[in-house]
Amino acid sequence: MTHLLDRLLQFRLVRFALTGGVATAIHIAVAFVYLHLIQENVFLANVIGFSLAFIFSYFAQTLLVFKNSVNWGNALRFFIVQFSALLVAQGISEIFSDMNSYLRVIMVVLILPIVTYIIHRVWTFSDT
Fold it and tell me: In the chain, N or C terminus with fewer CB closer than 10 Å?
């Protein structure tokens, strides 16, 4: 089993999926806690969830997935990609504003990884 896991982790897409899965779990957990304990505001729940997931995601994606150095240049590009994806996802979430708030959060976190992997691969970490 360990040999299989080691082989799978050699693939960038697998590492991206795993670290993205953890970042997504952070986003969902924080957003749900915010919605449940603080207030029913999907926008703020997603912004706070995104922010905490972003910090984890930047370091994990930079160091583990794309095996790049942490620096201001790729940090800025990473932020631009992630923030743009969040805005697009939030816009989509607002289109479905009559849906359950928890489902809207799920929609947002499912859209982000698809778009961001492609952009990070071809732009943010293009020198790897």
Answer: N
Predicted confidence (pLDDT) per residue in 5-37, tens digit: 677 667 888 888 899 889 989 999 999 999 999
pTM of the model: 0.73
Q: Domain range for residue 12?
A: 2-124
Burial of 122 (0-12, 13-18, 19+ CB in 10 A): exposed
Token reading at 107: 């929609």
How many domains does the structure of the chain reveal? Answer: 1
Rg (CA), the chain: 15
- List b or e across 46-80, with b for residues whose CB sees 16 or more CB atoms inside 10 angstroms: bebbbeebbeebbebbbeebbebeeeeebeebbee
CA 15 to the chain's CA centroid: 13
Q: Which two tokens stand for residue 101?
A: 């708030």
* Exposed/middle/buried for residue 111 (C-beta within 10 Å: 0-12, 13-18, 19+): middle
